[in-house]
Amino acid sequence: MSTRLRLHEKIIIFLVLTFFAVIWAFPVVHAFMESLKVNGFYNYIVVLNHPKVNYFRTVFNSLFIAACSSLIVTLIVSLGAYAFSKLKFKFKNIIYYSLLACLAIPAISVMTPMFFTIKTLKLTNTYWSIILPLVAFNAPFMLMILKNYFDTIPNSILEAAEIDGCSIFRTYKNIIMPLGVPAIINVMVLTFIYSWNEFLIPLLFIRKENMYTVTLAAQYFLTERQNSPEMIAQLYAALMLITIPSILIYLLSQKYLQYGLIAGAIKQ
Questions:
Q1: Are 23 and 49 in the same domain?
Q2: Residue 21 covered by a domain
Q3: Other Cβ atoms closer than 10 A to 159
Q4: Residue scoring higher pLDDT (30 or 249)
Q5: Stretch 92-107: mean pLDDT, rounded?
Q6: How far is 142 from 16, CA to CA, in rounded Å?
Q7: Domain count, the chain
Q8: Distance between CA 116 and CA 107 in Å, rounded?
Q9: Mean of the pLDDT values across residues 132-150?
Q10: Is residue 8 located within the same domain as residue 81?
Q11: What DSSP string describes 122-151?
Q12: pTM for this structure?
């Protein structure tokens, strides 16, 4: 009886996961089919050789911005998560929950003061005008992930390191960081994907075409020959080229994402 129940549970889980997989895959498959409906793969050649947008330049811009945002967030958040998880200081919980409260603030509600701040600092049309807001918006959520994961690291290991004469920073470098690799990779990948897919922030601060990200490049196919079947196919081709890198990164790091999220939810 127990074997049958387990088999039934596995079948139900498989069907549920298959259902959600189909929901996720359908838009991607639909976009790919639409991109080939007129002129086939020639649409991808048109996108890659568009006269107004250097696609490879936009890819470089997005890669650079996403990579820098990911590295900065990981460094800052790992230090903060270590402090909130393992160190003792005044108002620790108040500061931590105040940072988490930032998750409840809609990004759109702070766009006006953020725009004037970036403009005052004369950072418009620079990489920093995108990187700094991305770091600010992604840090609270990534802090929560890493802090929950660091909570699962036994305090006895840190106490043994302290007895051996390890300083706070050396404990962070030699113990916390190596043990936290799954969660750290998780944070890096999530931040990279969120930064890669960001549209609103580049739209606000970037005006030069050579600074465009891949999410901004697609707008050219929305403004040219809007009712043309060729334009629609090229738009889908552009969207596919934008989506492919983030999908590949997610698939290559899938095991770290799963392990990092699950491990952070378990207290030891």
A1: no
A2: yes
A3: 11
A4: 30
A5: 89
A6: 28
A7: 2
A8: 15
A9: 93
A10: no
A11: T-TTSTHHHHHHHHHHHHHHHHHHHHHHHT
A12: 0.84
CA distance 158 to 106: 38
Residue whose pair of structure tokens reads 């992930």 in the numeric block: 145
- Of 173, 195, 196, give the one whose Cα is nearest residue 184: 173
Looking at the fold, whether 31 and 155 belong to one and the same domain comes out as: no
In which residue are the tokens 């004369």 written? 122
Read off the CATH number of the domain in which 241 is found: 1.10.3720.10
Determine the Cα–Cα distance for residues 173 and 198; give it in Å rounded to an integer. Answer: 31
Distance CA 204, CA 123 (A): 12
Q: What is the CA radius of gyration of the chain?
A: 23
Question: What is the residue range of 56's domain?
Answer: 42-263
Q: Are 117 and 151 in contact (CB under 8 A)?
A: no
Question: Is there a domain that residue 268 lies in?
Answer: no
- Both tokens of residue 120? 């005052």
Question: 């002129």: which residue's tokens?
Answer: 39
Residues 74/118, Cβ–Cβ less than 8 Å: no
pLDDT recorded at residue 268: 44
Q: What is the mean pLDDT of residues 212-227?
A: 72
The identity of residue 216, as a single letter, is: L
Q: Between 83 and 246, whose confidence is greater?
A: 83
> 19: which residues sit within 8 A by CB, 6+ positions away?
none
pLDDT at residue 266 tops 50 = no
For residue range 23-63, list pLDDT tens digits in order. 988 888 888 998 888 888 888 888 888 777 788 889 899 99
Give the pLDDT confidence of 225-236 residue by residue, as tens digits.
556 778 888 888
The mean pLDDT of the chain is: 85
Q: Are residues 9 and 72 in the same domain?
A: no
